[in-house]
Amino acid sequence: MTTQVAWIGLTLRERRKLLTDMQEVLEHAVAHAANQQRLEAFAWADHVRSVLWRQGLQARSLAEKRGDEQWASLSGFISNVETDRRRSNMRPDEQLRLRAHEGEAELGQTVPDPYAYQGLGADGPIVLLAPGEEKSLALILKGDAEPLLIHLPKASKGQLREQVEKLQAKITDNECTYGSESDAIFDCLGWLWENVTAPILERITTAEERPHVWWSPLGEFALLPVHAAGIHPRRKPQINQRKNDPSKWPNMHERVISSYLPTILLVDSHPEAENGPLDTVLHVSVDPSEQLISLEDERQVIDNALPQAHINHLFDDNATISAFRAALPECTLLHVSAHGWLDRNDSFEAGIDLFDGRFTLRDLAASRADKGQLAVLLTCDSASGDFTTPNEALHVAGAAQQAGFKEVVAATLPVRDDSVVPFVTTLYADITAEPVDKTFAPAVAQAMTDAVDKLRMDSRYAVDPLSWVPYAHFSSHLR
Predict the structure, then answer these.
(1) What is the distance between the alpha carbons of residues 62 and 64, in angstroms, rounded to a whole number?
(2) CB neighbours (10 Å) of residue 169?
(3) Is 118 exposed, middle or buried (0-12, 13-18, 19+ CB in 10 A)?
(4) Which of 189, 188, 171, 191 lies closest to 180 in space, CA to CA?
(5) SS3 229
(6) Residue 206: how many CB atoms within 10 A of its CB?
(7) Using an 8 Å Cβ cutoff, are 298 and 245 in contact?
(8) pLDDT of 420 over the 90 cut
(9) Which of 256, 261, 364, 441 gives a 20 to 30 Å CA spacing to 400?
(10) Alpha-carbon span 10 to 100, nearest angstrom
(11) Strand-strand pairing, 136-141 and 280-285
(12) Cα–Cα distance between 102 and 8 in angstroms, integer?
């Protein structure tokens, strides 16, 4: 239904508008199925999310199949395809609509088989978070067991939206400078713990274990830092209080290792990158404004952590849009240190500020990184969702997955510059000790958790939430 209404023959912005208009109805259908503990809830949730990304993959696949790059232009992310000479008397939008009609049989998307969600082989529970008008729901898949339903009566759609609005109101658009944001973030994390994550963890974990939980959020849940929920110290004297009595400071990091799944399964038309070592690195590091004080130290950390890898350094004036685009296809690991741009009015123009301009979400999504294993995107808001269309994962992290990277570490909020060096030091020390195989996704999640743990337990960073809350892991592991 979603791809029939948000037809691929329309422009990106037209499709996005239609998905926004349909959002409430679609989420209601998912919540209804979840309330009945039906596997259809997972299938419907996947069908209504990341629609634009899936259409882009299908258009790219059809272009390769037919040997005609014109088909890729249906995605809406590619803007430099030549005009179809056979239809030179037609406007470009008319050409696209006609082409979409011609490829209709190969461009449709059906709802996934609900039974495909049984026995996925995940190393921990999968938690679908579905907002509802009166209450929200969590539906949990764990092994081959029947789905477990947990009611969240104090987290209605309206209450979730209120938390999102409060959080965004305290964060200045497009810059990493802030005033009273810390209390707003800690308030949100406390609310999420009490009303969302604590009730879930009480049912799916024990005090003796620390499982890997795959969070699959729908609607407003995709705009909130669920992975960092908890009661955290806000002032330095409270850090010692936490050491003396940790039980009074319950939080997600102590209980679970978290990863996000923008969709659980995907009709995947993307070439599957073979597992292999992180031996070809693209390191993009640029700061035209000269505000990132840790940039030089971060560069040294990356070189020291990957001594055996071939590293392509795109630093300073070498970090251009054309150089970035040209280098992406060959890298297995992408590391970006730069300023991020978040455009609240047009998510497609969000992106990474390079030396000669902005590499937008559309530019990254249209790129090819078929060998990509891991992208570490340490720019502000690199995984901040679209407020009006949260189910579409319209952020730089989502675009990196669209380009081909299996695993992405990114920032769900603005990130404090002085936390980056200790974060990447621990992250890469852990990751480089692990094989790049079917266990790589859990290894990335564990490495990221270890890096965040060191920051939030360090008195220099603990009471500044922008030093550790933003970091999150996004995976396509179950696709």
Answers:
(1) 5
(2) 9
(3) middle
(4) 171
(5) coil
(6) 10
(7) no
(8) yes
(9) 256
(10) 9
(11) unpaired
(12) 12
